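User: Second chain of the day. Same drill as before.
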Amino acid sequence: MPSVTETWFVRKLLNETIRKLLCEKNSPSERIHLNNCSALTVREREVLTLVCQGMKNKETAEKLFLSEATVRHHLTSIFEKLKVRSRLELVVHAFTEKIIEIPAEDFEFSNELE
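Assistant: Same format as last time:
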């Protein structure tokens, strides 16, 4: 059972949401800008990469040999530095700003809904 701090997304819905957000042409004032990507530490970039791969905090902690609390602290720092408020916003921002490459095999979008 997920903890209070975890959010679960249906992969198809997440893929569609990311696709739509990447295709939108927002005005500069509405767009999330990458201000301090270079301010991310190496460990924060590792955490960000794993979050973008869909890993939960526990999985990320195990993969990086950290505690879940440390992963949460890294995420808080990443959220502040990139000026995002949620995991979904973080993932979309990371892909949009090309901090993380979108893996083609995981994000094959269907044209059925268009």
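Residues 68-82 form the longest helix (15 residues).

User: Great, on to the next one.
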